[in-house]
Amino acid sequence: MDRTAPAEHPIADVLAARWSPRAFSDAPVTRDELHSLLEAARWAPSSGNSQPWRFVYALRDEDPEAHARILGVLDEYNQVWAKDASLLMISVAQLRNEKRELRHAEHDVGLAVGTMLVQATTLGLHVHQMGGYDADAAREALAIPEHHAPVAAIAVGRLGSPSLLPEKLAAREVAERVRVPQAQFAYPGRFGAPD
Amino acid sequence: MDRTAPAEHPIADVLAARWSPRAFSDAPVTRDELHSLLEAARWAPSSGNSQPWRFVYALRDEDPEAHARILGVLDEYNQVWAKDASLLMISVAQLRNEKRELRHAEHDVGLAVGTMLVQATTLGLHVHQMGGYDADAAREALAIPEHHAPVAAIAVGRLGSPSLLPEKLAAREVAERVRVPQAQFAYPGRFGAPD
Fold first, then answer.
1. If 0-12 CB within 10 Å is exposed, 13-18 middle and 19+ buried, where does residue B135 land?
2. Which of B9, B122, B152 sits opposite A107 (nearest CB)?
3. What ipTM goes with this model?
4. Chain B CB contacts of A54 below 8 Å
5. Which of A151, A180, A186 sits opposite B57 (nearest CB)?
6. d(CA A38, CA A18)
7. What residue ranges define each of the domains in chain B, with the CATH number in brackets?
8. pLDDT digits 0-9 by tens, A116-175
């Protein structure tokens, strides 16, 4: 099955190849790969170079207890498939540093993760982010301090077979990839203006 | 001058090559390039595929009035250099759609822009985002509606000569690129844990 994005304008192969699977194999993400993912995030730009992104991570093969701890804060419907992802993370935004409030922190976390996704694709890894997790439980289980906000749960691994997923989820692995057209989100000169 | 990120772990060339200049040449960003940038953003993942990113853009060669309108909402210290960028945009987050509050909207805007940056690098373009602009003025000048928040100003263009910048800004074009080490933002198992 070809999951390449059906782009209407040319985009880089590394971007068109990215998608968010639920079927992960049990092949491990290595520590070297983890560090390359984090390094990609590290070189992202941020407001005033504040670098407000934080990541709590667990490689299942290295620390199964930590992996289970992160898995445990996910909503049940995500645990079903995310358990197979070799690497789990919670992204965290630093909302304030010693100098100032970092009002762009969540945006900058997203930007760093956008960069990380490209590195993942380059390494043959896939990433699936989730909003479906218990942020309070994550704060407690992962000791996330004040002035920091859990943002997203992130599953990383190698593609597995959809046949191992519950039927309804397996169907989503091959469903058509859809996005609204550019005219619905990009406007010349004024919000809502037609192209 | 080599601005390649001094990465401590291997990252993709397209990521290491990215940086945020202030010296832009007057060479135009083409409409085809603009659409490729937007298309890269379009295929980013988002919470529930909500696609909460919006962009108001202006190509100077195509609509100098709109370009001036976006330039006009930037803080003075950004106008000094951003005026030379062929393409100016304001990114906007849709905070609510017909179904629900989109609490990850700003994060997802960041993620889409992270993807756009990679497309820009692929096209030989550079991008410099700014928090230094007047969000209220942007809302007014660009007709940004309720339930939507202006996020960042974005300058895109081709590299120019730092010699055209004020001395203090020119120096920043060649300053060392710095980031905190991974141990200061990535933690195994629990926030703050040593690697």
1. middle
2. B152
3. 0.97
4. 185-187, 191
5. A186
6. 18
7. 21-157 (3.40.109.10)
8. 999 999 999 999 999 999 999 999 999 999 999 999 999 999 999 999 899 999 999 999
